[in-house]
Amino acid sequence: MDFIKTRRKNAERQLLYFILAFLIGIPTAVFLLVLYVRIFFAGRIYPGVTSGETGLQSLTLPEAEIALGKVYSYPLYGNILLVDEENSWRTTPSELGLVIDLPTMAQQAMAVGRTGSLSQKVAGQIRAWINPVTIDPVLIVDQRVGGQLLGTLEQTIYQPARNASVTIDGVQASAVPGQTGRQLDFISTQELVLEAVETLENSTIQLPVESLQPEVMDASGTAALTNSLLAEPFAVNIAEDTLQLQPNTLAQMITFEIEGDEDPSLVIGLDPTLFFAFLLEIGTPYEHSAENARFIFNDDTHELDILSPSSTGRLLDQEATRLAFEEALNAGVHTADVAFSIEQPQVGDDATAEELGITELVSMRSTYFGGSSSARSQNILTASQAFHGYLIPPGGILSMADLLGDISLDTGYAEAWIIFGDRTIKGVGGGVCQVSTTLFRTAFFGGYPVVERYPHAYRVGYYEQGPNSPGPGLDATVFVPEVDFRFVNDRPYWLLMETYVYGTQLVWKFYSTADGRTVEVSAPEISNEVEAEEPLYVENPDLKKGEIKQVDWEADGMDVVVHRTVYRDGEVLFSDTMKTEYEPWRAIYEYGPGTKLPKDAITEEDEN
């Protein structure tokens, strides 16, 4: 009995040992198997990992990328057909920007069984053995790449909508009908491309193309209206007159433009450049600027005595006229009025000295022109009268050329000697420079800033005549319209000018209000003196035999510098310098054919 019990205990003990050995052996075996797998598949994809129908186990990352590239060749060899009406374009998914991210897919395959804790990694390996893990393709669509291709298609497909128009040949207008346009819906196309390539299958895409409608499809009515307008002259009412605008001229100005938001239509317009040029041509004679009243200052009462009344101005209103003409044309009316604007003078007849700030004489200068011909004297009087009683506003710039205007026989000027180039010749307005020189000196010694001044080419004796002459270097020439003299009234008061001719003396007066300024002018600094050449004798067939006539007078050349400093209340307000380079000027005599000349006379033949 004891024997049996002993054997039973031994059997139970062996069974226990077997169970313990079994329980210990399975994990060990599993552990050894896992350890074997991890060692054998180090740097390689674990078993049970696939993509598509291809197993990736035992592959390194580079090998996996190659294998995946063979499976997913769709971007390079897929076929996408883009269709638009009768046209089609065949392309590949890669040209549309599709890329399969093979490195990322290979890394995902390599990561199976290699993430998390040790137990999670082992569990991952075991799950892959039991239920294979599939790596889905990783798609990247670079719309910038596809956008380049689609942009080319967009340009190919695009047809702009064309509005109806009207053409004019001579005086005959013809209507051109409008045309519908086409445009690729770029955003929708990108969405369709994205949907197609994500299927990884060949596909056909019907391109979404929008229809572009013109604003105006029919212009036959506008063409008919234009033809009716060009069938007869257009009447232009300007001031009290009526002028005719001929059809061929009007046709060149006509333009067409679309107007209206809800119901746009083609209307008749006028080319601004051509129309304004026409308007200025016909309208300028009807214009006149507003003119201030002119006064003289009464030295006894210190009030202004009216010299000539003010007048309103009438100026062309170009834009208003263009709009009026266009309104008439679109209404089918064959006449329109030229519009003018009224310009009011700054100074009316009732202006007072107090209002304008004119209280005293602030500058006065005289020049003398003894020995001048009657024609030259006439020109001096005519030119100086243009400034008598004239007002310059505070801050205003006086331009002699603008105020003198046209210098011609028709405006009261006579022919007299003028300097032209390197000669003194007869010309209309000779002597006007006596006026410009006198005005220049009045402004200069009055302390007014000089804006523009040109000296004469050579010294002119007239400008150094008489008492208190400043000497050479302070003359000014004017040759309308190229050469001007200008100065600025920089005082806060109006400036009134008065001019008087007493015999051979021209007196210029400035009336305003003194502002405490004084003027210091240096004596002329003379240098580089050059003697004039000997007189030149020139034959003139219009003179009689024995007749000799002097036409140019001798003057030595020199450089002259004059400095001016203007003070106000003892402080320097400004300073400037007048520089003049006088050329030497030889006397010139003209003589009639066969005239006996003085001994040692130099002629043009001698010069040559």
Structure description:
The chain has 608 residues and is α+β, with helices and mostly antiparallel strands. Among the domains are: 1-39; 220-343, Roll (Ubiquitin-like (UB roll)); 357-607, no CATH class. The protein is 30% helix and 31% strand. The protein is built from 16 helices and 38 strands. The strands form 14 sheets. It has a 4-stranded antiparallel sheet with strand order 22-30-29-23. Strand 25 (415-420) and strand 26 form a beta hairpin. The chain is elongated, with a radius of gyration of 51 Å. The protein starts with a helix and ends with a helix. The relative contact order is 0.06. The model is unreliable at 1-8 (pLDDT under 50).
SSE map:
Blueprint: H1 2-40, E1 49-51, E2 54-55, H2 61-71, H3 74-77, E3 80-84, E4 87-91, E5 98-100, H4 102-111, H5 118-130, E6 133-134, E7 139-141, H6 143-157, E8 165-169, E9 172-176, E10 181-184, H7 186-197, E11 203-206, E12 209-212, H8 220-229, E13 234-238, E14 241-245, H9 247-253, E15 254-259, E16 265-270, H10 272-283, E17 294-298, E18 303-308, E19 313-316, H11 318-330, E20 335-337, E21 340-343, H12 353-356, E22 360-368, H13 374-385, E23 391-392, E24 397-399, H14 400-404, E25 415-420, E26 423-428, H15 432-445, E27 450-452, E28 486-488, E29 495-502, E30 505-512, E31 517-521, E32 525-530, E33 536-539, E34 548-552, E35 557-568, E36 571-582, E37 588-591, E38 602-603, H16 604-607
Parallel strand pairs: 1-6, 3-11, 13-20, 33-37, 33-38
Antiparallel strand pairs: 1-2, 3-4, 5-7, 8-9, 10-12, 13-14, 15-16, 17-18, 19-21, 22-30, 23-29, 24-28, 25-26, 27-28, 29-30, 31-35, 32-35, 34-37, 35-36
Helix pairs in contact: 2-4, 13-15
